[in-house]
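Quick board copy: two proteins, each given as sequence then tokens.
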Amino acid sequence: MTTPEHVAIIMDGNGRWAKARGLPRVAGHRAGVEALRETVRVASDLGISWLTVYAFSSENWSRPAAEVSDLMGLLKIFIRRDLAELHRNGVRVRIIGDRAGLSPDINGLLDEAEALTAGNRILNLVVAFNYGGRDEIVRAARKIAEAVRRGELASEAVSPELFAAHLDTFDIPDPDLVIRTSGELRLSNFLPWQAAYSELVFMPCYWPDFRRDTMLEALEQYAARERRFGGVVARGMAS
């Protein structure tokens, strides 16, 4: 089966999973963390090089304060409890998103995760935290505009490749496959630039129910497709 180099996942449906079971939303988020742990192991086992997960969007701040607090707490627990294991297993942690305005304790944990695992090569785990695709594009445009203003860059030299070099993902390959759980059929501001030619697979299960079999089913759908990138002959498929 063809294995994508980079899989990105919109981990959706924690709250609805909990509601269906008569549980508080935080129970769904906790179950979602367990699903993430298993997915990291599965990605490593399958030889996937890059796994990007949509952990917390820049729009999630509009949720009730108690839920946001619970999510921040789960992030802290995940890093403190799982970071050593991720490091032992050769997982490199990367963070994308806007860190300006985050609390010092959160920023410190994110910095620690990146610094400790910087030399690992088995799997790159990219965590999109306080991330919004439109915001990322705006921030990149501001960087380029400032470089033009300082005379470091000619405006006519700006190309898609140069623009991409100013995104948070400047050194990360574009995702081959984007998976979204919960049955919703949209990207929700997740990697809009990078996912321009990604294959999209929408799974009906809620994120806490995502398991190895779910990943394999998504990969089977991916393997059955031809990736032509606007051309006639399929390319970019490595078995």
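And the next:
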Amino acid sequence: MFTSKTLICAALMMFAGMAQADGPGLGQPLAQDEIPVYARYVMPDGTGLPAGSGSVVQGAEVYLYDCSSCHGETGAEGPIMPFVGPNELWPKPAGLHWPHATTLFDYIRRAMPFYAPKSLSNDEVYAVTAYILFRNGVIEEDMVLDAVTLPQVVMPNTGNFIDVWALQGDKPW
């Protein structure tokens, strides 16, 4: 005897299979210029990184103005999660946590500063990323980050993540 829950589950699985196979046939793909910059993926290999560049010195200036009120004067104090460490509260601070330097860049570009997300220019995001990586000993002080050099940065925590991009091929879903 079938219960109503069984019939509903069977119907949902049937419709899910149909939708996955052919799709609903609605809408049309957006052109690249119709997709907001912040809504585009930056891949671990650097695909999707915007034009621009930034140095550690430039990043220190941007950091003091846009980041220090939350992350502390040097990046180690807080009150919000410090990105320099490790320390007694954060064994893997934000500056070392990410599996790829491009992921750190993309997070900053989309979510920071907290009080005005997406307000930093590409150059400012490259610069702040450089400053954070320098403060954590990942890059040298004279390094300039851009779409070519940023993907070449090897993060110390890379081996502690499962690379879902490799599991899924080129698709981010």
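Board note added afterward: The mean pLDDT is 83.
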